[in-house]
Amino acid sequence: MGKLTRSVAALFAMMTAVRADIPWPEVIQRLASENEKLARRPQGHSGEYFIVCTLYYTPKESGFTFDRGFDATRVSKPGLRGRTYPRDFLRSVMKEGYGRITTPINGRNYIRYNGGSYGFSSAPSGGGGTLIPHFSAAARTQGPLYRGLVLETPATQVERVFGSTRWKIVDTGGGLRRWQLDCYYGEDEPLGPGKLMARPRGTTFEYAYSTARVSK
């Protein structure tokens, strides 16, 4: 089997391993139903919620190559001061917020995307400080899930993927849903091109339900 054939076969295997897109209508209905049940208890929520855990990460430039099926054409964008990077890498940074570059610029190892422009950064961060893999999380900070809150998520699938059951909300995002906890995975190369860019190579995790208890 030639190198190109092996690459195509590996890509197909990865794509078939990844589950379908998150079925948001079904997920939203389940979250609303379970949280209504908790709210109807005599004690109410009492610091306990039903959430869906998802994943975000910091993509590494090194993984965006033509050999792996990416558009690795080097382009520049506003804020990059004429420096060029793989086109798909910049697209991924636009979605994830940060990306790790192969060659540091003035001691800065990352680029960030914010408000239509890119820039260089020392570390991925949110409104609550530097992101910590397997601990930092983002949520829609309207209602009971607010920035600074620490939650325990005992779901087995979440612990298996992240090696953690404890999360601190340090960031938010306009695309997040009610009762969604977006857990920070850390740095990794992308799983593959297209929709697979939203997933790190280290896991095919898409989402998992969990109870979430406010940590005392």
Word description of this protein:
With 216 residues, the protein is an alpha+beta fold. It has 4 helices and 13 strands. The protein has a 6-stranded mixed beta barrel. A 3-stranded antiparallel sheet has the order 4-5-6, with helices on one face. It has a two-stranded antiparallel sheet with strand order 2-3. A hairpin with a 2-residue loop joins β7 and β8. The longest helix is centred in the first third of the chain and has 16 residues. The N and C termini lie far apart (57 Å). The N terminus is likely disordered.
Question: What's the topology here?
Answer:
Layout: H1 3-17, H2 24-39, E1 48-59, E2 74-75, E3 85-86, H3 87-96, E4 98-105, E5 108-114, E6 117-121, E7 125-126, E8 129-130, E9 136-139, E10 150-152, H4 156-162, E11 166-171, E12 180-188, E13 208-214
Parallel strand pairs: 1-12, 9-11
Antiparallel strand pairs: 1-13, 2-3, 4-5, 5-6, 7-8, 9-12, 10-11, 10-13
Provide the structure class. Answer: alpha+beta
Unreliable residue runs:
1-19
Helical content (DSSP H or I, runs of 4+): 10-25%
Note the total helix count: 4
Largest sheet: 6 strands, mixed, barrel
Along the chain, the helix and strand elements come as HHEEEHEEEEEEEHEEE
Radius of gyration: 19 Å
Q: Globular, elongated, flat, extended or rod-shaped: what is the shape?
A: elongated
Tally of DSSP β-strands: 13
β content, as a range? 25-35%
